[in-house]
Amino acid sequence: MAAVTAEVREAVVKRRGHPSSHGQARFGFAMIGLSVLFVAVFTAIPIVASLGLSFFSWDVISTPEYVGLENYQRLFTDGPVLKSFGVTLGMALAIVVLQLTIGLGLAVLVNQRKLVWVRTLFRTAFYLPLLASTAAVSIFMGYLFDYKFGVVNYYLNLPGISNVPWLTSGFGAAATIVLIAVWQQIGFTFVLFVASLMSVPTDVLEAAQIDGAGGFRTLFRIKIPLISPTILFAAVVALINAMQLFDQPYIMTKGGPGSATTTVTIQMYQKGFQNLQFGYGSAIAIVLLAAILVITGLQFLAARKLVFYQ
Amino acid sequence: MTESTGTLARIGRITGVAVLVIAAMIALGPLLWTVTTSLRTPAEAFSNPPQWIPLHPDFSNYGAVFDRIPIGRFFFNSVIVTGLIVVGQTVTCTLSGYAFAMVSFPGRSVIFGIFLATMMVPLQTIIIPVFVIIRYLGLSDSPLSLVVSALGSAFGTFLMRQYFMQMPRELGEAARIDGAGHFQTFLMIYAKMAGPAIATLAILNFSGFWAEFYRPLIFLQSQDNFTLPLGLVGLQGNLGTGSISVVLAGVVLAILPSVLLFIFAQRYFIAGITAGASR
Predict the structure, then answer these.
(1) pLDDT value at position A165?
(2) Whole domain around residue A192: which residue ranges?
């Protein structure tokens, strides 16, 4: 009976199928139309335009002037811009390493808790900072890490530690911004790793326990290899984000003191939107994009050896 | 089991809990300080030790923040901008996600491939051309510029497509036999089942665009058009370090909607994070 209805249905679909496949194509194009339009105008075309603009000199008002590779030549001899790439790379690597290790550590610890409400409690605690905007975080963290009146230095003073120049020394500012970014972003890696640890099959863990593997052995030999694809994903996403670090240094230190926290995106903002050098700004953007692609590629290359796919 | 391994395990367990509690305190401390300091009088706001428990809460800062800056206006702008993006992307991504998953048309995989490729491109590397296009459209310094340039999303399309791919095709075929049109089949059967994916996308977009600072900084010039994060940073600049409790009251007001949403829809936030990992 069921087979008969299926056959009938198939026959009907076939019969209607031919003339309506044209209609189906039209329907498909209509459905993707809006998305294609907006993604094309505001993402796809700008990628090409960004590359194109990088070969021009343009101040938005007058006509663009073709200058060949001049912007790139300038970039590779522009000390402050080159330094901003170093600053960004250093801060981004620090953020990613801390975010992954702390996030993984906390996820492993929370996963050992058996009570669901306890897990929910910690998850909420680690997720809350992610709900605040980076602008809001930069504002209150700026107060907390204030040299003279900040709460952090107040508590350090109690056991006799003298005031730390959190945001007023070069290394201090970079390190503090890294810590603040990690503080806010930790919920992202934490939630990912908790979900992924939950999916490790319990029979595998039980087998390990029967074979006498201790907690650390189970963690490094079984759990981490099994969730390594998630670790790779987290590393890639965290790095792409960290390479675009802008809000916190822009709001808290304006890239200073000196140029200690002037990231590539701050340089690009200054050259592009404050000095109205759209061509040069685009060249910086393209080199940043290339740097991100290269690092992501390296991550995937390293993953070929380290990531375990089931 | 010997007694020493039992003790060792207990020490390990206690250390683990201690680490978690300390980490939670570090995560929550700055937020708690922000809330309690916003309830102190402006005069004592920056005096230490901080007041962790507001015994005598002073709500005057919440009134003052409305007097000092047009925070009502910022709030309104943020609601409009975020709301329109959430609704707009829900429509565009549901439509295109369904088509890429369920409808066959020529060039489907090529176009979808281009979508996936654009998903990887960071916003900051294309912001200059986007700004130029906004200018050509005559939307400079308009909150609408934030909306229009965010109406399409490759990631949102991908998210919806993944969800539609899991749905049984037989339902649609049955409906077609019963005489339903293509769009009717989509709307009456599949879109109705896509609730959880739509909720995930909407919440991801809400929390992302509500908090956005970079595009507003570049697209907007006049204070009347500012969204909350941009307006708050301006407020901080205007006041200097004079009365931080007023600034912090503004910060609390800005964070509150996200926190409320999180309390009621926590699982969609979590789904949003883990959805990305499945690609």
Answers:
(1) 93
(2) 78-306
Is the sign of the CA dihedral B104, B105, B107, B111 positive or negative? negative
* Complex ipTM: 0.90
pTM of the shown model: 0.90
Domain boundaries, chain B: 3-61, 64-277
Inter-chain residue contact A27 with B149, CB threshold 8 Å: no
Instruction: Look at chain A and count its residues.
Output: 310
| Gap between the Cα atoms of A46 and B132, Å rounded | 9
Between positions 97 and 116 of A, the ones with CB within 8 A of B are 102, 105-106, 109-110, 112-113
In the structure encoding, which two tokens stand for residue B165, read together?
């791919």
Just give the CATH number of B64-277: 1.10.3720.10
Cα gap B199→B184, rounded to integer Å: 22
**How do residues B89-137 score in pLDDT, each as one tens digit?**
999 999 999 999 999 999 999 999 999 999 888 899 999 999 999 999 9
Q: What are phi and psi of A57, to 5 degrees?
A: -110, 125
| C-alpha–C-alpha distance, residues B131 and B137, integer Å | 10
Chain B interface, best mutation among A131, A189, A246, A266, by max B CB count within 10 A: A131
Structural contact between residues A192 and A233, judged by C-beta atoms closer than 8 angstroms: yes
Task: Please list the residues that pair with A56 across neighbouring strands.
Answer: A66
